[in-house]
Amino acid sequence: MPNTPIFNTFADNTLDRSGNLRKNPEWISSQLHHPKAKFIPMLNLMVPIKKENNFSYIKYLSFSEISYYLDNSLNPIFLGTKKSIPYFVCDLSESNKIQNLNDLISFEELRNAAMSLSNEEASILALARSITDWRLNNNYCPKCGDKTKTLNGGNSIICKNETCKKEIFPRTDPVVIMLVYNKNKCILGRQSHFPINFFSVLAGFMEPGESIESAVSREVLEETSVKVKNVTYHSSQPWPYPSSLMIGCIAETEDTSIIIDQEEIVEAKWVERKIILNALDLAKDSKADPLKENKLNHKRLILPPPIAIAHQLLRCWADNPKFFL
Ligand SMILES: [Zn+2]
Asked: How far is the CA of 42 from the centre of ligand 1 (A)?
């Protein structure tokens, strides 16, 4: 890859997860009662945000504040420590004091909030959102159906049934996302839920028993009938909706025609580098989420914003014509 900095939103979590220490319930208890412990309240998977001087920050609560909302049913998940301060996330969706909470804190969708947060805070919230979603969906053992309880400060769960005791860990779903190019052109695709002029690079879930290279080749072939070669890894991005890992790649092809699979995408086309460069500059300056923007200008190409790894893949390829000959 070209020697240029890589900036992926959600990929800058600086918390020390303390993987060995968190196995000890007594240590977790001491962290819960640490005088400076920070708690991230979550409400229906939305994240707590405070705004100051046009910047956004995480709105943390103290132990006594978060305890007030959950009474005796406090079940925080340990996220990690930074400078010896422990961080936890706590789902408050079941609290009977939600009205008070809504008066105190502004909750937002992470995807929107991330555009005005530091990447470090966006990354902490990505972890908080993914693991909260996982915990909410795993109250019962997938093997025997009995109830589960938490281990490792909430970073894994175990079946309560003594004859089962199945331990379950948070899942991550790998997705390959790839820029495919031929000389000065690359392939862009449009899914059915995209606005009419919004295009991105191709992507798809990996399948069991598949290497990253094989997944890239298969997805591109399935969606466009294009055969790729020289699949190269670029970077990766946690994508907390709910728990994907985007694996960014760049691949070359000698094919120049496209036959699309209508079930996967509704449109795909070759786009020249200079058009990509213009559209990237416009996407960089736009604060709006193009997927939620209904009044788009239909005359020009809209690309994903910098928050998406697709933007970073396109930027890498478009800015380095000598590297990607
Ligand atoms: Zn079980």
From this structure: 28
